[in-house]
Amino acid sequence: MTNEEYRQRAEKQAPRSRVGRNCLGAFLVGGAICCLGQLLFTAFQALGLDEQAAGTAESIALVALGALLTALGVYDDLAKIGRAGTLIPITGFSNAVAAPALEFKTEGLVTGTAVKMFSIAGPVIVFGLAASVVYGLVLCLLGG
Question: What's the structural domain count of the chain?
């Protein structure tokens, strides 16, 4: 069998790309999460919170909702439909912290839950803090 024949045969056997479906799912689910965030923000403002406090309350509510849906096993089902749309919003970060903590809870509070909780989220926190330091230094140097 030549390389060309092998390539043709492999292309026939390979599963079809689902890029369109994945993009649509990510758009719909990610958009729904963002719409929920906006709804929460508006509701907190309607309850009398100022803009900054409403934003903080919204973030807390979304993180709590993400952790709750992870604990109930719903977030994984949502991620099968929404793919990257569930990773981008703050709920994805909550899921990234809660999922390993739940998975390793049988290993104990310290060596299981506490250690594994930041196995995925740890690099995000480290690079987020590093980026904020660099941004602050650049801002100081530019006189902002």
Answer: 1
